[in-house]
Amino acid sequence: MLRNGTENGGHMKRRKRESGNAFVELAFVLPLLTSLFIGVSLLGVRLVKELALTQVARDAGSMYARSVDFSMSSNQALLTRLGTVLGWPQSTGLSATDPGVVYLSKIMYIDGTCNGLPATDSKGRSCNENSWVFLNTIIFGNTNIHTSTFGAPPACLSACYESVITGTSPNRGDINVNEAYYNSQDKVRNFTYLGTPATGTPGFQPAQVANLVEVAAYVGTNVNYAFALF
Question: Which of 63, 78, 155, 201 has its Cβ near the most Cβ atoms within 10 Å?
Fold first, then answer.
C-alpha cells in the first residue's frame, strides 16, 4: 500500500511539472500566435479593400460606357457608395477632402489621315495625327491623392470644353470636337492598351470611342490605384 501511495504521489508531481511546463510554453507561443492572427487579419482587410477598389473601377467603367452622366452629383453619389469599404461617403459623391478620386475619360484615336479631316484647321493648327485624344473628361474626389496616369484632365481645359466654346450649359465634361482634333493640349498620355488602331484591320478603329476609368484610394497608409477600359 505504501508503494502504491508513493507511485501515486510521483504521478501527481509529474502532472504538476507537465502542467507548469505547458503554461511556460503557452506564455512563449501566445505572443507569436497573437501577432500571426493580427497580421493575417490586416492582410485580409487589405485584400478586401484592393478588390473593392478594382470593382469600383469596373463598375464605373461599365456605367460610363452605358452613358451614365457622371457630371450629375446624384450619379457621383451612386458610384461613391460602392466604395464605402474604402471609407468613402455613403450619401454624397467624393469631395476634394475625401480619401478617394475618380477620373472618367472618353478617348479616341486619330490616325495619320486625321480620320479623313483636313490636316489643319481654320486657325492653322495641325491635326493631332497618330494620337489618342480626350472627348470627355469628368473628375471628382481628392486629386491630391493620385494624379491621372493618362493626363486627365487635358491641359486645354477649360477653354476647350464644348460648353465654354458654344456658351451652352450645363457642362457635362464634353470637349469640343474641333479642339479634340486640333488642340495639341488635348492629347492622352502613356496610353498603349489598344495598340495602334487602323482602318480596315481587326480590332479597335480610329474615331471609335473608348471609355477609360481611373480610381485611387487609401488602402491602409498607402494609395492604391486601379483602372478599367470599356
Answer: 63
The domain ranges of the chain are 47-229
pTM, 2 dp:
0.83
Contact between 78 and 140 under an 8 Å Cβ cutoff? The reply is no
DSSP code, position 186: G
CA distance 102 to 148: 9
| One pLDDT digit (tens) per residue for the chain, 230 residues | 444 555 555 555 555 555 555 666 666 666 765 666 565 555 556 778 999 999 999 999 999 999 999 999 999 999 999 999 999 999 999 999 999 999 999 999 999 999 999 999 999 999 999 999 999 999 999 999 999 999 999 999 999 999 999 999 899 999 999 999 999 999 999 999 999 999 989 999 999 999 999 999 998 889 999 999 99
Query: How far is the C-alpha of 118 from the C-alpha of 114, rounded, in Å?
Result: 7
Helix or strand run (H / E) with residue 22:
helix 2-65
